[in-house]
Amino acid sequence: MFLIFLGSLLSAVSWGANGSLIGLFWMMAISRGLAGVGMGGEYVSGIPNTAEDSEEVNYRHRGRRVGFSVNVIELCANILPKLVGLVLIAIFQYGDIQAIWRISYAFGALPCFALFFIRLRMQNSQLFQLQKKRQGYLSLDKFDLKYISRKYWRPFVACAGNWFLFDWYIFTYDTFGARILSQVTGAGLLKTSWILLIQRFFYVLGPISSALLVDKIGRRKVLLFGWSMLIVTSAIMGGVFFKLKTIPIAFVIVFTFFYVFQPFILVPIYLVPAETFPTRFRGIMLGLCSAAGKCGGIAATEAFNPLKQRLGGGDLGLRNLQFVYTGVAFLGVIVTWFLTPEYKERNLIEKDVQYAEFRQELRLECRLRDEMSETNEKK
């Protein structure tokens, strides 16, 4: 959180030596990178702690607690910066661009300052404290790596794969959503930004519904529903793209449904890694899954324009891209169906018990092997 706070403040005061524009952008890039490291740290500490905390309340409601405590709050928070930016544009009327982006960046430091004193009083979950008491803050060793490669390669591929594919989707439309709407509807970027803001309010309905369903019908079913709906909406946008283009409001409505169904994937991809792995390396594995997601976002952002041009450019390229995204969603269904585990109504301490038993067995095997080798050497 401190890194986010510092990165936001440095971004707001970015400046190049002797007024250099290149220097300004370099300082801004480094400052945003610093804030990004902090954001990544939020994933690997906040999500596991929330999941582990459910053991002390009611593990049968773990999905709902994670959904509301993490995903709903995150998506509500995503609305605020967009609203602040649009309000600042309305105030300054593009008369002072620097004031708009500097205030926008500085605004990101305010929540960190407000939460700082609360977090000083926070406690780690009981599961984490027990793990710390049992084995301390030890780094992963050969036993852990053997355990992960033997028992958790399938869940890891599933969690990382779903996160990669989902961020391919969400980064594309977060980055290029305004351009897509502007190209289809003919509206200016400012108007489309307001449309996207209104869509975000509907977007919050997704994580609320998903958080309420994930403990009742299970993680895999919610994931399959979310991916299936993305297949349907992407196929519709591609199949009747040119018809929708003649009725802009119809495209906006379909586009809004596309946003509403995304969180049905978002909640499980945060939740499943947090409950799949033992406490000893839960945060590490979730961090790796999150990193895989960011790789998907980078790949999607870099591939958008080249793919669009390769697929025909202009409206034709944009239309054909929808079929590419349909294929991405179909891959999500395959990963979920064949690889994703289901941990509905299962206690997290089971994972720690299995891990402790496995580690004890490996120690016994190593001890027996050493004793046999010593016996052979004496002979």
UniProtKB/TrEMBL annotation:
It is a multi-pass membrane protein. One of its GO terms (cellular component) is plasma membrane. GO terms for molecular function: carboxylic acid transmembrane transporter activity. Residues 1-16 form the signal peptide. The keyword ATP-binding does not apply. It holds the Pfam family Sugar_tr. The chain crosses the membrane at residues 66-93, 99-118, 152-173, 193-215, 222-242, 248-271, 283-301, 321-339. Keywords: Membrane, Signal, Transmembrane, Transmembrane helix. It is found in: Membrane. InterPro entries: MFS_dom, MFS_sugar_transport-like, MFS_trans_sf, Sugar_transporter_CS. PROSITE patterns: MFS (PS50850), SUGAR_TRANSPORT_1 (PS00216). Its main location: membrane. Residues 1-344 form the Major facilitator superfamily (MFS) profile domain. SUPFAM superfamilies: MFS general substrate transporter (SSF103473). This is Major facilitator superfamily (MFS) profile domain-containing protein. It comes from Galdieria yellowstonensis. The lineage of its organism: Eukaryota, Rhodophyta, Bangiophyceae, Galdieriales, Galdieriaceae.
